[in-house]
Amino acid sequence: MRILQISDFHLRGDGKLSFRVVDTPKCLETAAKHLLSLTQKPDMMVVTGDLADSGDEHAYHMLYDALSPLNIPIYAVPGNHDRRDRMRSILKGWCPENEETAPWLCYAVEEDEVRFLMMDSMSPGSHSGHVPETCAAWLEKELARRPGVPTLLFMHHPPFITGMGAMDEPYENVERLRAILEKAPWVRLCCGHMHRPIFTQWAGVTAVTAPAASMQIDLDFSPEGGDTFVMEAPGYLLHDWREGAWNTHVCQIYGTPTYAGPYRFLDSVNPTEE
């Protein structure tokens, strides 16, 4: 079984360039063309947040129209640039309703051998990660429901320190999340937000972040690092379940990267509405 994780489209539907530089509709077109050309189709796709750049309504329609022709199940969790209400209303089937955690978008997707948990880490108006008690309690209960079953946990914000100072922000309830995962070593934590692939161990589990489908964050370990981006090759992760283990592959989206930059993240909004 192969799960394609793609992240951080930062799509604008108003005809403007994201961060004054990036033609994100063109990035989406390139990504969709590449994914449609794959000879070995994934079984499922998960979009780990920042689908839109500033919660723009038209952006979600554009994303839905571009990726639906893949004809595979697609699921999504919100990032700090998204709006939950528009994701729920426009991305039909991508964000299953769960009254237990509403308004947060948390839900489970079950298979015989493996399972997938999608957890919302967004708080409107905030750039950083959040695990409110409602979501933490849901995660704890879900992991106890099928203990030991290999699980991919998808969320936008990584809870671990990356070394890029501007991105290593305070994280609400992070110790509660750590305590839950320390009891669940069968989980692999799969995040977005960082706009580049990172692999680490956190709370006793393997943790990864996906490259972006748009721009990649410049690798800068200074206190201000993480606030600029470069037009490197876009990409995604492919989680391949094989002989009882997950192999995670970093894949590039074929195109013509310019490697221009670094540029500042300008004019982007973390929407304050649900």
UniProtKB/TrEMBL annotation:
- Provide the alphabetized UniProt keywords: Hydrolase, Iron, Metal-binding
Q: Which SUPFAM superfamilies match?
A: Metallo-dependent phosphatases
Record field: transmembrane? none
Q: Can the keyword Repeat be found in this entry's annotation? A: no
Name any one Pfam family assigned in the record: Metallophos
- Please list the residue ranges annotated as the Calcineurin-like phosphoesterase domain: 1-197
UniProt entry tagged with the keyword Protein biosynthesis: no
Enumerate the InterPro entries for this protein: Calcineurin-like_PHP, CNP_phosphodiesterase-III, GpdQ/CpdA-like, GpdQ_beta-strand, GpdQ_catalytic, Metallo-depent_PP-like
Task: Name the CDD domains on file.
Answer: MPP_GpdQ
The entry lists its GO molecular-function terms as: cyclic-nucleotide phosphodiesterase activity; metal ion binding
Report the sequence similarity comment from the record: Belongs to the cyclic nucleotide phosphodiesterase class-III family.
Q: What is the name of the protein in this document? A: Phosphodiesterase
